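Question (not urgent): is this output format expected?
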Amino acid sequence: MKTIDYAMKYLDFGFSVIPIYSNKLIENDPYFLEEFKSVLATSIDKERKKGATIDTAFKNGIATKLLINYSKRSLVQWKKYSEERPTTAEVEGWFRDWPLANIGIITGKISNIFVLDVDGKIGEEYINECGGAPKTPTVQTGKGRHLYFKYPKGMEIKSSTCTNLKLDIRADGGYVVAPPSIHGSKREYQWQKGYSLLDLEISEASDWIIDFATKPKKTSNSKDKASVTKPKKSEVTTLTNCEELDANFMDIPDIPDITNNSNQNIVDLIEQGCPEGSRNDSATRVIGHWLKVGLPAEEVWSLLKMWNLKNQPPMEEDELSNIFNSILSSEAESIKSDKINLSDFQVSVEDIVKDFETDVCKRFEFGAKDLTHLQKQLSGGFVGGNLYLLGGIPSSGKTALCNNIADNLCLNDFPVIIFSFDDGDRELHFRTI
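Got this back:
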């Protein structure tokens, strides 16, 4: 099965799904590769400035850590999908555009789950001390495992971290990486054999897990551990064997393909219509396009009804009308909010006089004896409150000129602050002196 098929199955389970960076995506997509190289170079440079010895092993170490971090980052602005699940068309569009992406599942109320993230031996020991965890779908991760639980009704669970115990909670405000994604360490996220979503229903969490998830994480010593409610051993099934994995947990017939119109040329979309799975999104695109080119609303509605006849099958007119009115309302609000009040740009005689009576039009002389001609061309110096941009080809002397201007401003008792993204402070000092 392809990654897109897994993503669609998770969407069918009711989860809010998003695309995540992956090693393969970074290695095979020129855009993401260049982005990664740039961030890597910046990270290495920071370590160099701290005095680190930069050799091949050191660079590889930084690259590995960065890859692990990247393989958990969302490719889209994911916060909105913690309040509303993405559409079928959106998920299909993401994973067709980025077939090598990892899969993320947003936790919390939106997906009706929260996840206990166990990262090693300390966390496993604590779980066993508390009596274990209920039998529930479980993912083997790069360093440990993810246990999926139903989001408890009538409660609020926020994502949180307990560093001492290597136990994290992923709930409202968080997400987890899901199989068959690839961890930054090159290890694949896999459902533990017999503990996949197809093998088990998602379980209710034990009292001690709910307690752990909803209370401050004060669990650094035995006294704190004892304060957590521990159920009887007979009430739970302890999960300790995470070695035997089943990579084909979703070995079921592929879902039917639905054409994705997110990148379809707008002209083709208008001429050809669209299939059932993407009618709402396509209608939104078509309406937005016609309104943006300036067609009156009544013409857009007439054209929209004719366009709808090309769809397979056409939408009900009531549904089409709801989409149209919703977008029309949004466009009206946008136009209203973007409306420019010309009176804001009107200047009265009193305003002009006030400007000249204050320091608003005060000029700052920067020429002294060195830059008199340039100062003259600028009518006697810089005007206070303005922003001046100096441009030029590389090595044309921009920095030297700015340093010269700064020196003269200081000689005229005007304070100067210099920001540079190219030269360090020592270089600027040497060039100035």
